[in-house]
Amino acid sequence: YSKWYLQRMFRTVTHQTLGDYIRQRRLLLAAVELRTTERPIFDIAMDLGYVSQQTFSRVFRRQFDRTPSDYRHRL
Question: Does residue 72 fall inside a structural domain?
Answer without folding.
Answer: yes
